[in-house]
Amino acid sequence: LIAGAMAFAPVTAMAADLTIGFSQIGSESGWRAAETTVTKQEAEKRGIDLKFADAQQKQENQIKALRSFIAQGVDAILLAPVVATGWDDVLEEAKDAEIPVVLLDRTVDAPEDLYLTAVTSDLVHEGRVAGQWLVDDAAGEKCDIVELQGTTGSSPAIDRKTGFEEAIAGHDNLEIVRSQTGDFTRSQGKVVMESFLKAVGGENICALYAHNDDMAVGAIQAIKEAGLKPGEDIKIVSIDSVPDIHLAMANGEANATIELTPNMAGPALDALETYFADGTVPPKWIQTESKLYTLEDDNMAVYEMKKDLGY
Ligand code: GZL
Q1: Secondary structure (3-state) at 94
Q2: Cα 300 from chain centroid?
Q3: Residue nearest to ligand 1 atom 3, measured at CA
Q4: If we measure between CA atoms, which residue out of 21, 11, 13, 14 comes closest to residue 265?
Q5: Is 238 helix (H, G, I), strand (E, B) or coil?
Q6: SS3 of residue 268 by DSSP
Q7: DSSP state of 308
Q8: Ligand 1: does its nearest atom lie under 6 Å from the Cβ of 105?
């Protein structure tokens, strides 16, 4: 018997009349914008009344939004947590109010009984796939790497770094010579890449590992402005599989990306509907699939398929 309030769902709320609060991080990247678009579509499909709150990437705004949802007495909360720590108090308040919380695309360092489930990719695996791609591409040749990290303290920034370093460990030809956050944005990706080029010298940089495509797209601009060829002089591997990285690969200006589905809400809302319908408690982690795309794929076809999905 699972102890705790979470095990006995209030089976009164039916799908048709569900009100769900969604605390979204912001719109820092094309992927994030697509996740917002898809989440609203998935709620609409299910006749769910979605209360949307954009936090402009500030944790305090997310905590305020959660407290507002609790005060409104929503049936459930979706939370994409901008950073991994600092959630215990507000998640306790949601639990006390018997409002289940589902995490989207990022995780939190909090006791597992404070959220119903987390719908995310395997972020460490994504980093490993990126690292392994570079191990294979370098083929034993010396390759100094610069790294654009995601938002400091976020689970993707932590886990994607861990996975990448695991994959390149033991390959002495590969070394990360500079690593700094670009906060998952194009503008910061460009600015930080400019500083890497100045500090290291473009001719000494063999590859860029960016924790998301938007920072890679910004970095591509900086590499071009430095008179170098992105995708050739400096190899580029990143994560998300947004349309613009496929356009870059089609032009030979980027080399690999790992796909992150923007549809975390579908599995999240399915789990919540079942939970409310018959009390079934979902697994703590609902994992979404990752897929590697490279220069060799038909990137224009992927771009055409993705370009109208809300990125
Ligand atoms: C990863 C997700 C990241 C995306 C970025 O699961 O949280 O946040 O990779 C976005 O594009 O900013």
Answers
A1: helix
A2: 23
A3: 156
A4: 21
A5: strand
A6: helix
A7: T
A8: yes
Residue type at 59 in one-letter notation: Q
Tokens 């400091």 belong to residue? 152
Which ipTM score applies to this complex?
Answer: 0.99
In tens digits, the chain (311 residues) has pLDDT values of 344 444 444 555 555 689 999 999 999 999 999 999 999 999 999 999 999 999 999 999 999 999 999 999 999 999 999 999 999 999 999 999 999 999 999 999 999 999 999 999 999 999 999 999 999 999 999 999 999 999 999 999 999 999 999 999 999 999 999 999 999 999 999 999 999 999 999 999 999 999 999 999 999 999 999 999 999 999 999 999 999 999 999 999 999 999 999 999 999 999 999 999 999 999 999 999 999 999 999 999 999 999 999 99
Amino acid at the residue 244: D
Q: Is 259 in the pocket of ligand 1 (CB under 6 A)?
A: no
Element (H, E) at 147: strand 143-149
Return the best residue to mutate from 27, 31, 211 for the ligand 1 pocket (most ligand atoms within 8 A of CB): 31
User: Is the shortest distance between the CB of 311 and ligand 1 below 6 Å?
Assistant: no
Report which residue type is found at 80: A
